[in-house]
Amino acid sequence: MFNSLSVVGVMRGLTLSVLVLLACVSSAHAEKFARIGRAATPSEIAAWDIDVRPDFQGLPRGSGSVAQGEKIWVARCASCHGEFAESPSVFPPLVGGTTRADIERGRVAGLAAVSENSKTTIMKLATVSTLFDYIRRAMPFDAPKSLKVDEVYAVTAFMLNLADLVPADHVLSEKNIAEVQQRMPNRDGNTMAHGMLDVRGKPDVSGKDCMRDCAIDTNSMLLLPSTVNGLNGNLAEQNRPYGSIRGIETRRNP
Hints:
CATH class of the largest domain: Mainly Alpha
Number of strands: 2
Number of domains: 3
Structural class: mainly alpha
Largest sheet: 2 strands, antiparallel
CATH superfamily of the largest domain: Cytochrome c-like domain
Number of helices: 9
CATH topology of the largest domain: Cytochrome Bc1 Complex, Chain D, domain 2
Strand order of the largest sheet: 1-2
Helix content: 25-40%
Shape: globular
Distance between the termini: 85 Å
Oligomer: single chain
């Protein structure tokens, strides 16, 4: 039988073997593709590897207040998303549709509602890390990754305040962001019980396989609400002129 010291020794040996194997693979890769590119440097990898996980691994140190976030929002975000994240034109609204009961329950009741109302971003989000991560890597739309870490914290704090998740004097940081997670309205909204992750689950879409002479099911076609019809031009003119997908007519009625 192994004692604890023997087990530790075996694990160390396995770890060393794995490191040696990885070094050999890396060396072989470099030799095989010697004239194609080069190995990425640690600093280049660090600049690319900036994702923040739901358990907040990868979250950078920093802080930002709601008040600071409001100033950044007006200057960098409001032109697309509205001054209060209501997104009145092109983009879906970011905040709204949640209640105090949703925050207490951890599941947004409004997501099950059948209506023409847009489902906002804050209604769908299960993790605050997703919000932080997306703002950091993709926003602003015209200059992604241009916000400093503290500015990302500030903009995130402002959005959380709009959703009544933090008070107006709140300062968001890596030290207290986990506390905010416990108030996300849809924190218990993730599910594995659907066809995308489990073939035995309920499919995400309904339909029948058909390869030729397929009948068009008009009942399953997407129909835009009249209130937003034409806001982004005529979709029928924006799709490729081949393939099975055709954009529907979305001209504004005169």
